[in-house]
Write a structure and sequence with these properties.
single chain, about 450 residues, alpha+beta, nine-stranded mixed sheet
Length: about 450
């Protein structure tokens, strides 16, 4: 039942569906310098089977030929997948995402701006030497007693839920390290939402230089003081002892209670993720807005949130609207949940660095296609996209055939303010954690058996 995804989604009448045609796949492979001969598992067929494998939850390679109705072995498919150039898959993803993003450009605007969510996450993979050396593994684990884990930084369009771009890196990489590589995906006037990792002078100054805006949680080390004309310290001037406890910003204007415009000064030390030349090119100071609000829910402690933003106009961007916008940042966790839990991307299967990159690329391509199906269903059914069941859209794509009309998908109930604890109800089996390599443990068991 090898399905032609392009034929299935052509009913949406969108330009991006053409980027999944056979000719588009061949063109991407040719541009990557890939050469192939006419065989059962050529690049077009292999890409389609790879797509099917991800749609069904990244099932084992041995099962994919059965899904696709192909009389080949799982080993042959795995070898064919290894022949696919990573650059070709990345080209397919980039072209599809660009066309998809263009078709939903004005979806979910906030006060006339497009919102983009910045956040980092991680995923695991098999324990092989190349992967361990490239990505690293969590601390406190001996070699052979854990699994390599990659860090990734994602840029997600709030209105559509599309993953615009993802940067992968070794596990011990800070979120801010790759953020500059995501800026080219944004257009003037776009607003980036992120946690306190992104609310630094360097990042905010880079956004302003490119005509972009930011709304971030204030960094934990940032000293915020809402008193008018309060004293302040300029980095690099005077004795450091006299700066203790003083904000590194000059008060400019009050916009209301716990809402002000201040001038941030260029720090002395260059961050590790920025080159000295780029650091020196940043302005001596920038103007930003600092605001603070509280979240009070019955039965919970009052929570105070401090934000920094480049949106200075209090009339156009009221404090309450900014607080509301920052709350939307948590929708990125839903996107991560769909990708890692629903689609089973939390643990990838390939045993090489390039293989892991291929898997991730295909996961993002399939995820974005499911998101476009969700948007199409939402438009037809007259409900917000976040109400359409992602799982139902995924299942329809996995089982649909060319010519099948998109049915009405499941509409989830509206549950504003829903709170769920991050806990596990099902208890894992109480086996001890592996603290020695498997070969050592086997030898110990064998010795014990002989001694008995």
């Amino acid at each position: 039942m090898i399905g032609n995804i392009a034929r299935i989604v052509e009913q949406f009448k969108r330009s991006w569906s053409h980027e999944l045609e056979d000719q588009a796949i061949e063109r991407a492979c040719q541009e990557a310098g890939h050469k192939w001969r006419d065989r059962e598992l050529g690049p077009v067929t292999t890409v389609k089977m790879f797509f099917l494998q991800i749609l069904y939850g990244n099932v084992a390679c041995e099962f994919v030929p059965r899904l696709a109705g192909k009389d080949v072995t799982g080993s042959a498919y795995c070898t064919a997948r290894g022949r696919l150039p990573l650059a070709a898959l990345q080209t397919l993803l980039a072209r599809c995402t660009e066309k998809m993003a263009s078709s939903v450009r004005d979806t979910g605007l906030w006060l006339g701006h497009r919102l983009f969510l910045l956040d980092g996450s991680s995923f695991s993979m098999p324990d092989t030497d190349p992967l361990r050396e490239h990505f690293g593994q969590p601390g406190g684990q001996a070699v052979g007693c854990g699994f390599p884990t990659a860090h990734w930084l994602a840029l997600v369009h709030f209105g559509s839920g599309l993953f615009q771009k993802v940067i992968t890196a070794p596990l011990r990489t800070h979120d801010i390290n790759g953020v500059a590589q995501l800026h080219p995906e944004l257009k003037a006037g776009d607003v980036a939402l992120g946690d306190r990792a992104f609310g630094t002078f360097a990042h905010v100054a880079l956004l302003l230089f490119q005509g972009l805006h930011g709304l971030f949680r204030a960094h934990q080390k940032l000293i915020v003081d809402f008193r008018p004309d309060r004293p302040y310290a300029v980095p690099g001037r005077g004795k450091s002892n006299s700066h203790k406890g003083l904000p590194r910003s000059r008060w400019i204007k009050s916009l209301g209670p716990l809402d002000q415009i201040v001038e941030w000064f260029h720090p002395v030390d260059c961050p590790v993720w920025l080159t000295p030349a780029a650091w020196a090119a940043l302005p001596a100071s920038i103007r930003v807005r600092e605001l603070q609000y509280t979240i009070a829910r019955p039965g919970f402690r009052v929570h105070t949130v401090t934000l920094v933003t480049t949106l200075l106009d209090a009339q156009r961007y009221p404090k309450a609207k900014l607080a509301e916008a920052y709350g939307l940042r948590w929708t990125v966790e839903t996107a991560f949940g769909h990708l890692k839990t629903t689609m089973k991307m939390d643990v990838l299967r390939c045993q090489t660095v390039q293989g892991i990159q291929k898997e991730l690329t295909m996961f993002l391509l399939v995820y974005n296609l499911v998101r476009m199906t969700v948007l199409e269903a939402a438009q037809r059914q007259g409900v917000p996209p976040e109400r359409i069941s992602f799982v139902d859209a995924l299942r329809w794509l996995a089982t649909a055939r060319p010519g099948d009309e998109l049915p009405e998908l499941v509409v989830n109930p509206f549950r504003p303010g829903r709170i769920e604890p991050r806990v596990r109800k099902r208890r894992p089996k109480e086996f001890p954690v592996m603290k020695k390599p498997r070969a050592v443990l086997r030898q110990e068991l064998s010795t014990q058996g002989l001694g008995a």
